[in-house]
Design brief:
The chain has about 230 residues and is mainly alpha-helical. It has nine helices and no strands. The chain has two domains: about 100 residues, Vps28 N-terminal domain (de novo design (two linked rop proteins)), CATH 1.20.1440; about 100 residues, Four Helix Bundle (Hemerythrin (Met), subunit A). Helix 6 packs antiparallel against helix 9 and helix 8 runs antiparallel to helix 9. The longest helix is centred in the N-terminal third of the chain and has 28 residues.
Length: about 230
Amino acid sequence: MSTSMSFDEEVRLYSTNAEREKYNTLATLFGIIVALDYLERAYVRDSITAAEYSPACTRLLSQYKTMLKLVGSDVPSIEDFMKRYRVQPPSMQIPRRSDSFQMDHPAALHRLKVGVPATVEHSSEAGPETGKWIAETTQSFITFMDGLRLRIRAKDQLHPMLQDLVTGYARFKGSKDWEGRSKMVSWLITLNGMKASEELTEEQARQLIFDVEHAYAEFFRSLGGDKDAVS
Protein backbone atom coordinates (compact mmCIF):
# COMPACT_ATOMS: atom_id res chain seq x y z
CA MET A 1 0.00 0.00 0.00
CA SER A 2 1.60 3.27 -1.07
CA THR A 3 0.93 6.77 0.16
CA SER A 4 1.36 9.73 -2.16
CA MET A 5 2.69 12.98 -0.78
CA SER A 6 2.87 16.36 -2.45
CA PHE A 7 6.10 18.27 -1.84
CA ASP A 8 4.18 21.48 -2.47
CA GLU A 9 1.91 20.83 0.49
CA GLU A 10 2.44 23.23 3.40
CA VAL A 11 3.61 21.58 6.62
CA ARG A 12 1.88 23.05 9.65
CA LEU A 13 3.95 23.54 12.77
CA TYR A 14 0.93 23.76 15.02
CA SER A 15 -2.57 22.37 15.40
CA THR A 16 -3.90 24.62 18.17
CA ASN A 17 -3.99 28.36 18.87
CA ALA A 18 -1.66 27.87 21.83
CA GLU A 19 0.93 26.16 19.67
CA ARG A 20 0.61 28.87 17.03
CA GLU A 21 1.23 31.56 19.64
CA LYS A 22 4.26 29.67 20.92
CA TYR A 23 5.85 29.49 17.47
CA ASN A 24 5.06 33.14 16.79
CA THR A 25 6.80 34.09 20.04
CA LEU A 26 9.83 31.93 19.19
CA ALA A 27 9.96 33.55 15.75
CA THR A 28 9.92 37.00 17.34
CA LEU A 29 12.77 36.02 19.66
CA PHE A 30 14.68 34.68 16.67
CA GLY A 31 14.19 37.99 14.83
CA ILE A 32 15.36 40.03 17.81
CA ILE A 33 18.62 38.09 17.98
CA VAL A 34 19.27 38.53 14.26
CA ALA A 35 18.46 42.25 14.42
CA LEU A 36 20.72 42.74 17.43
CA ASP A 37 23.62 41.00 15.71
CA TYR A 38 23.28 43.26 12.65
CA LEU A 39 23.08 46.30 14.94
CA GLU A 40 26.24 45.32 16.84
CA ARG A 41 28.19 44.78 13.63
CA ALA A 42 26.96 48.06 12.17
CA TYR A 43 28.10 49.93 15.28
CA VAL A 44 31.55 48.28 15.27
CA ARG A 45 31.98 49.23 11.59
CA ASP A 46 30.92 52.85 12.26
CA SER A 47 27.96 52.41 9.94
CA ILE A 48 25.75 54.03 12.59
CA THR A 49 26.49 56.59 15.29
CA ALA A 50 26.42 55.99 19.04
CA ALA A 51 23.34 58.22 19.24
CA GLU A 52 21.54 55.93 16.79
CA TYR A 53 22.92 52.72 18.27
CA SER A 54 22.19 53.20 21.99
CA PRO A 55 18.38 53.58 21.92
CA ALA A 56 18.01 50.85 19.27
CA CYS A 57 20.12 48.43 21.31
CA THR A 58 18.30 49.27 24.54
CA ARG A 59 14.95 48.66 22.84
CA LEU A 60 16.05 45.27 21.46
CA LEU A 61 17.43 44.19 24.85
CA SER A 62 14.15 45.15 26.48
CA GLN A 63 12.16 43.25 23.85
CA TYR A 64 14.42 40.22 24.33
CA LYS A 65 13.77 40.18 28.08
CA THR A 66 10.03 40.39 27.47
CA MET A 67 10.07 37.56 24.93
CA LEU A 68 12.21 35.40 27.22
CA LYS A 69 9.50 35.61 29.89
CA LEU A 70 6.86 34.52 27.39
CA VAL A 71 8.69 31.48 26.00
CA GLY A 72 9.32 30.11 29.51
CA SER A 73 10.47 26.49 29.61
CA ASP A 74 10.70 26.28 25.81
CA VAL A 75 13.98 28.22 25.99
CA PRO A 76 16.07 27.06 28.99
CA SER A 77 18.92 29.34 27.89
CA ILE A 78 19.78 31.61 24.98
CA GLU A 79 22.65 29.27 24.05
CA ASP A 80 20.24 26.33 23.78
CA PHE A 81 17.93 28.41 21.59
CA MET A 82 20.78 29.39 19.27
CA LYS A 83 21.88 25.77 18.97
CA ARG A 84 18.36 24.72 18.03
CA TYR A 85 17.83 27.38 15.36
CA ARG A 86 20.55 28.61 13.10
CA VAL A 87 20.45 31.54 10.69
CA GLN A 88 22.51 30.96 7.58
CA PRO A 89 22.82 32.94 4.34
CA PRO A 90 21.47 31.00 1.31
CA SER A 91 24.90 31.01 -0.33
CA MET A 92 26.43 29.02 2.51
CA GLN A 93 26.40 25.23 2.42
CA ILE A 94 24.42 23.71 5.26
CA PRO A 95 26.85 21.81 7.51
CA ARG A 96 26.35 18.08 7.77
CA ARG A 97 27.44 17.73 11.35
CA SER A 98 24.53 18.37 13.71
CA ASP A 99 26.78 19.76 16.44
CA SER A 100 27.75 22.66 14.18
CA PHE A 101 24.14 23.49 13.34
CA GLN A 102 23.63 26.58 15.49
CA MET A 103 22.95 30.29 15.17
CA ASP A 104 26.20 32.02 14.32
CA HIS A 105 25.60 35.34 16.04
CA PRO A 106 28.41 35.86 18.57
CA ALA A 107 27.98 39.65 18.66
CA ALA A 108 24.32 39.32 19.64
CA LEU A 109 25.10 36.59 22.18
CA HIS A 110 27.71 38.76 23.90
CA ARG A 111 25.36 41.76 24.04
CA LEU A 112 22.54 39.64 25.47
CA LYS A 113 24.85 38.27 28.15
CA VAL A 114 26.11 41.71 29.15
CA GLY A 115 22.61 43.16 29.08
CA VAL A 116 23.57 46.77 28.34
CA PRO A 117 24.59 48.56 25.10
CA ALA A 118 28.25 48.71 24.08
CA THR A 119 28.15 52.46 24.68
CA VAL A 120 27.61 51.68 28.36
CA GLU A 121 29.99 48.72 28.54
CA HIS A 122 32.90 50.58 26.91
CA SER A 123 32.07 54.23 27.47
CA SER A 124 34.99 56.48 28.39
CA GLU A 125 33.54 59.93 27.84
CA ALA A 126 32.69 62.38 30.60
CA GLY A 127 30.82 65.61 30.03
CA PRO A 128 29.91 68.78 31.91
CA GLU A 129 27.49 66.94 34.20
CA THR A 130 30.31 65.11 35.97
CA GLY A 131 29.35 66.41 39.42
CA LYS A 132 25.83 65.09 38.98
CA TRP A 133 27.19 61.76 37.70
CA ILE A 134 29.43 61.37 40.76
CA ALA A 135 26.45 61.88 43.05
CA GLU A 136 24.25 59.48 41.07
CA THR A 137 26.93 56.79 40.87
CA THR A 138 27.69 57.12 44.57
CA GLN A 139 24.00 56.67 45.34
CA SER A 140 23.89 53.60 43.07
CA PHE A 141 26.83 52.08 44.97
CA ILE A 142 25.19 52.75 48.33
CA THR A 143 21.80 51.40 47.22
CA PHE A 144 23.34 48.23 45.85
CA MET A 145 25.56 47.60 48.89
CA ASP A 146 22.64 48.24 51.26
CA GLY A 147 20.56 45.74 49.33
CA LEU A 148 23.26 43.09 49.65
CA ARG A 149 23.66 43.77 53.37
CA LEU A 150 19.88 43.41 53.78
CA ARG A 151 20.30 39.93 52.29
CA ILE A 152 18.65 40.65 48.95
CA ARG A 153 19.76 37.73 46.80
CA ALA A 154 17.16 37.28 44.02
CA LYS A 155 18.15 38.09 40.44
CA ASP A 156 15.03 40.16 39.72
CA GLN A 157 15.85 42.45 42.67
CA LEU A 158 19.62 42.72 42.26
CA HIS A 159 19.81 43.04 38.49
CA PRO A 160 18.12 46.49 38.12
CA MET A 161 20.32 47.97 40.85
CA LEU A 162 23.52 46.57 39.37
CA GLN A 163 22.52 47.70 35.88
CA ASP A 164 22.03 51.26 37.16
CA LEU A 165 25.42 51.08 38.86
CA VAL A 166 27.26 49.83 35.75
CA THR A 167 25.53 52.42 33.57
CA GLY A 168 26.61 55.27 35.86
CA TYR A 169 30.09 53.81 36.34
CA ALA A 170 30.69 53.68 32.58
CA ARG A 171 30.21 57.43 32.11
CA PHE A 172 33.58 58.37 33.53
CA LYS A 173 36.66 58.87 31.44
CA GLY A 174 39.22 56.21 32.33
CA SER A 175 36.67 53.88 33.93
CA LYS A 176 37.38 51.20 31.33
CA ASP A 177 40.78 50.74 33.01
CA TRP A 178 39.36 50.39 36.53
CA GLU A 179 39.53 46.86 37.89
CA GLY A 180 36.19 47.26 39.66
CA ARG A 181 34.33 48.01 36.46
CA SER A 182 35.28 44.75 34.79
CA LYS A 183 34.18 42.86 37.90
CA MET A 184 30.82 44.65 37.98
CA VAL A 185 30.25 43.83 34.30
CA SER A 186 31.16 40.21 35.04
CA TRP A 187 28.58 40.08 37.83
CA LEU A 188 26.02 41.66 35.50
CA ILE A 189 26.65 38.84 33.03
CA THR A 190 26.24 36.30 35.86
CA LEU A 191 22.88 37.77 36.87
CA ASN A 192 21.76 37.95 33.24
CA GLY A 193 22.30 34.20 32.99
CA MET A 194 20.01 33.47 35.95
CA LYS A 195 16.24 33.09 35.98
CA ALA A 196 14.27 35.87 37.67
CA SER A 197 13.42 33.68 40.66
CA GLU A 198 16.95 32.35 41.18
CA GLU A 199 19.08 33.64 44.03
CA LEU A 200 22.80 34.04 44.59
CA THR A 201 24.38 31.54 46.93
CA GLU A 202 25.84 32.84 50.17
CA GLU A 203 29.32 32.28 48.77
CA GLN A 204 28.47 34.30 45.65
CA ALA A 205 26.86 37.06 47.72
CA ARG A 206 29.91 37.30 49.96
CA GLN A 207 32.22 37.60 46.95
CA LEU A 208 29.91 40.17 45.33
CA ILE A 209 29.92 42.32 48.49
CA PHE A 210 33.73 42.17 48.53
CA ASP A 211 33.97 43.11 44.84
CA VAL A 212 31.51 45.99 45.01
CA GLU A 213 33.17 47.45 48.12
CA HIS A 214 36.52 47.24 46.33
CA ALA A 215 35.02 48.94 43.26
CA TYR A 216 33.50 51.66 45.46
CA ALA A 217 36.85 52.41 47.10
CA GLU A 218 38.63 52.36 43.73
CA PHE A 219 36.00 54.72 42.29
CA PHE A 220 36.77 57.40 44.85
CA ARG A 221 40.53 56.84 44.72
CA SER A 222 40.38 57.38 40.96
CA LEU A 223 38.35 60.57 41.34
CA GLY A 224 40.52 62.00 44.07
CA GLY A 225 43.91 60.87 42.82
CA ASP A 226 43.49 61.64 39.14
CA LYS A 227 41.66 64.84 38.31
CA ASP A 228 41.74 63.94 34.61
CA ALA A 229 39.59 60.89 35.35
CA VAL A 230 36.44 62.99 35.33
CA SER A 231 37.37 65.96 33.20
